[in-house]
Write a structure and sequence with these properties.
By secondary structure, the protein is α+β, with helices and mostly antiparallel strands. The chain contains 14 helices and 9 strands.
Length: about 350
């Protein structure tokens, strides 16, 4: 497929209808959405796929995905890192950014549907998840990446994980305010943002730096930690390290491997930084990695010139759809990852009028 250039009002419904159907075809009766047929499920990528179902108009199917999360949530509000056929298969850790992401998905679904009953139904699940996550926030603002029952994993923080939580705290605040609940999410978010911007020593304390990963580079922009000129300068500073023209964004700076999900997330980060032209150009490279069934390959090893691995994950397809929505402004949730919108009393009233 040749390059696909998208702009507001030009959402290719038929093209992404097929992608939505691909994700739905892999959803199990329980609502669980695995990576691919026979693959496992993790809470973060499950939510990503659920958001794609919402974009595609499959609202009942998306709600089934959130029902699955509610049914598998642990008493402390967490989820384990890996499930297979609905059964937890990795009980080594419960990752905080995985657990926080339900707030982002639930708010995304509400923005698209304005279904207040949905928001009220899943509020207890979101509230418990954020209680678990914020129990891991240090006095410095950073949030421990994971815990296990044996306390054998290192206490440390990840830039990408904490950036994702930063966006989830924005969404959790908006859910709470919409439903009339007073929660300390803004204060926790402010401490986390200050840590990400000003305390780099709080991250990667016990392992090798993750700075070689492109997500550590663009996620703080994608999630609103850096905005405006600071966001633009951050993306420009390592552009040549991570971006392979005509192919996409590398997963890591030192490997010749362009990955499609990271490329699409970078597109949204570019939009967040105000560089629409570059976002459209980078997104145009994604079309070549589309499979005939509407799915997308994980990535391309451009030295060996092979698609690798031999997988087409649901979450990769979802990232493609989220970026398309952001470029075309197709749904009312299209700006969720390209702007920061913290509700207050006045903006809530405006939101309610718009949905009336």
């Amino acid at each position: 497929m040749t390059g696909l250039y998208l702009s507001p009002g030009l959402y290719p419904q038929e093209l992404f209808g097929q992608t939505t159907d691909y994700i739905y075809s892999l959803q199990r009766a329980s609502g669980e959405i695995p990576w691919f047929e026979g693959g496992h499920t993790d809470p973060w990528d499950h939510v990503e796929a659920a958001m794609a179902l919402t974009i595609g108009g499959k609202y009942p199917e998306a709600q089934r995905a959130y029902n699955w999360l509610a049914q598998t949530q642990e008493p402390d509000g967490s989820w384990w890192a890996r499930y297979e056929n609905g059964v937890k298969s990795d009980v080594s850790r419960r990752e905080t950014n995985f657990c926080a992401y339900i707030a982002t998905g639930v708010w995304h679904h509400y923005l698209c549907t304005r279904d207040r009953d949905f928001l009220e139904t899943f509020w207890p699940c979101v509230e418990r998840a954020l209680e678990f996550v914020l129990s891991q926030q240090s006095p410095y603002g950073d949030i421990n990446w994971a815990i296990d029952d044996d306390e054998e994993i290192p206490t440390d923080a990840l830039v990408t994980g904490c950036s994702s939580i930063y966006k989830s705290l924005e969404c959790a605040h908006n859910i709470a305010l919409t439903l009339g609940h007073d929660k300390p999410y803004l204060a926790a978010r402010a401490r986390l943002g200050e840590s990400l911007r000003s305390l780099p020593e709080r991250y990667d304390r016990t392992w090798e730096s993750k700075a070689r990963y492109s997500m550590d580079w663009f996620y703080p922009v994608l999630t609103g930690v850096f905005q405006g000129r600071a966001a633009q300068e951050r993306l420009l500073s390592r552009w040549s390290e991570f971006v392979e023209p005509g192919l996409g964004c590398r997963c890591v700076s030192d490997e010749p491997w362009a990955t499609i999900a990271e490329t699409c997330e970078l597109v949204m980060a570019l939009l967040a930084a105000g560089d629409t032209a570059k976002a459209r150009e980078v997104y145009s490279w994604v079309a070549q990695w589309r499979h005939a069934d509407g799915s997308y390959w994980t990535g391309y090893q451009f030295v060996e010139q092979v698609l690798w691995p031999d997988e087409r994950p649901t979450w990769t397809a979802a990232a493609v759809m989220l970026a398309a929505d952001a470029l075309t402004q197709h749904t009312p949730a299209s700006q969720l990852f390209t702007s920061v919108k913290l509700l207050d009393a006045d903006s809530l009233a405006s939101l309610n009028r718009a949905s009336a």
